[in-house]
Amino acid sequence: FNPPFPSRSEPTITTGSVSPSPLPPTIPHPAAPPLALALHLVGRSTLATFRSLFRIRPVPRAAAMTTLLIQWGKHKFHVDFTGYERVEEKGFEAITLAMLKERCKDVTSVPINAMKLLHSGAIMKDDTAPLSSFGLHPNAKIILMGTKPDDQEVLTTTTTGNPEEHALLTRISATLSKATTVLLPQIDTYEQAALNSPPVTDTVARKRLTDTHNMLSEQLMQLLLQLDGIAFAPEFEAARQKRREAVRTVQGFLDRLDRITAALKSGGAPAQAQGGEGVV
Questions:
Q1: How many domains would you assign to the chain?
Q2: Best exposed site among 55, 136, 251, 260 by fewest CB in 10 Å?
Q3: What's the alpha-carbon Rg for the chain, to the nearest Å?
Q4: Do the Cβ atoms of 68 and 43 come closer than 8 Å?
Q5: Sequence-ordered list of residues with C-beta below 8 angstroms from that of 261, at least 6 positions apart, any chain
Q6: Domain CATH for 136
Q7: Is the pLDDT score of 72 beyond 70?
Q8: Contact 270/191 with Cβ under 8 angstroms?
């Protein structure tokens, strides 16, 4: 009786070495990122989350290029020039000293005419010069010198109630004070020395008098130049009148000095000894 199913053949047993069947291919695992890269990615993610939570916006390029640290007494603040024309292209070359003073005035209310800005110990003077000419760089430190005037004092000393006119009056008064309190006593001393003029043979003493005249004359001329360099708005009538008086006083001192020297050279007495005409 033959079974309905085919008979299975017996397994064949072979002797000798048996070649192993090949293993399936191994898929390499991705290499772990370096620690520095991982920390960088985590830091960026954290910073983005922090900015989102506190609504912090990235600093514009123009602000990063033109930010300055201003120190005004005990106060410190930053100014930048975002939105100014051609700032992103030229940086501080597109910003003048006058523009910086305007920004400082906006923050402190110190009048521009009463303001001094210093960088590295030097006063920045040329208002038309670009900030790059002063050697400024982003986040450079600027010292602001100046005070905000009292509102009531501004109203009582000016005809316009403008703090800028009050600042001009203060500058003119300071110039005139130097002439009357510093240079006038020296002119008096010079005149007394001229009254007792040394003989022509005493060349050392006479040279000393000549040097004194030259020094006083130069300082008086500098004061006149300072007064002449003060610019006014058309409506600043009080400041204009104050400058006119200051120029007249300083010019009188200079004329008196020249009369003393002329009398000394001619061998006569100075004007004061002849009747006091030399006193201003």
A1: 2
A2: 55
A3: 42
A4: no
A5: 194, 213
A6: 3.10.20.90
A7: yes
A8: yes
